[in-house]
Amino acid sequence: MTMTETAELENEGDAFRDECGVFGIFGKEDASAVVTLGLHALQHRGQEAAGIVSYDGRQFSVERHVGLIGDSFTKQSVLDRLPGSRAIGHTRYSTTGGEGMRNVQPLFAEFAGGGFAISHNGNITNALTKQRELQQRGAIFSSTSDTETLLHLIAMSERRLFVDKFIDAITQLEGAYSLVGLSGKKMIGARDPLGIRPLVLGDLDGAYILASETCALDIIGARYVRDIKPGEIIVITTEGLESHFPFGPADSRFCIFEYVYFARPDSTVEGRNVYEVRKRIGAELAKECPVDADMVVPVPDSGTPAAIGFAQQAGLPFDLGIIRNHYVGRTFIQPTTSIRHMGVKLKHNANKSAIAGKRVILVDDSIVRGTTSQKIVQMVRDAGAAEVHMRIASPPTTASCFYGVDTPEKSKLLASRMSIDEMKDFIRVDTLSFLTIDGLYRAVSEPDRNPGCPQFCDACFTGDYPTMLTDRDGSDATRTLSLLANNG
Length: 488
Description:
single chain; alpha+beta; Glutamine Phosphoribosylpyrophosphate, subunit 1, domain 1; Rossmann fold; six-stranded antiparallel β-sheet; 29% helix; 24% strand
């Protein structure tokens, strides 16, 4: 079975594809080993492939491999090929095809002034348009990644200094991006003007670090300094750190789904602890959608914090009525149709002794297509549950994401084509309820939000896209980049 076929099978489930993670360190011996640890902490953001680029003062070294970080980068022979005190890394899950090695990041290019590597989390929504313009000017693309567009824009900039070339290039981009780049003299970090994707600054014994989440700082014992600001370009050299703000002022529109699902529970993003936010989400869900029941059961693992919050608010017992097998990877080979249909039991199994005869509330973070939810509900019923109620710790997902998250086309999203009652019947639960968008905002400590001026990107729930979608294709809201593989 090819990776594409496996990905298509996995995409039948009810979980969004994870995004990508970026990490860089400047000024620490054995930098590649530190990057490896940082990428381990960010593994949840992408499990398809990973790469590291290091610089030892003379030359760049590049290693890119398919699979998990531990599959390749914990080998001493690999780390020995990545010498130097500066390195950046990337853990990847492509959101539109392009699984080949040529798309594994960091991408690296030799410019007239020297080498440059770049790691990207997000999606450039005008990359296809820019690519066509660049090709007309003679550019030759070697990957199908939207990130390569940035490299060509840098190369063709007429500005003199490299930082100015980078700024010139980045101001031509639309969409969501958190970037970490490495040249022979500097490490560069950047966030899009709305700060849709996360990026933080850390310090390890005087060495600067850029990372997608604070959990990557914790694993190496680094100190969190601050979040990179929306629209900020940060330049790190041996002389220190400087910031540039080339964009005009704009209100932040950080991705609210980072709190629902993507970020690791032990991370702090935009000043909020993710675990505590998810518990508040569960509590809000219990207030909005109460139901008579005997116990609260999470759909592991992403539904667990919200289920704890729900149980505490509702005064109901919390129990692990579903046990997850953590040793089933994304690339598990499913060779026959009969085995493939058993896929949900490869990852989850009902704890019969806990749920038999009980009225069960299942708490999950979201529903995408509904197929996996349907199988989990049936599993719980088969284990003897008297009733099965489902509560979803986010609003109905009615629109595709164009900012680096792999969501199906709008027409394949269950909530875009069914009412909640129809979804209830499809999933075969006794009751089904979702958190409201106002409840979600309350849970992330924005109780006084102005609906006309949202503080987050909530487009997957509301269809309110905060940026231009130049490459968006057609009326069915299909992928932003139908021909390019973005980076998650």
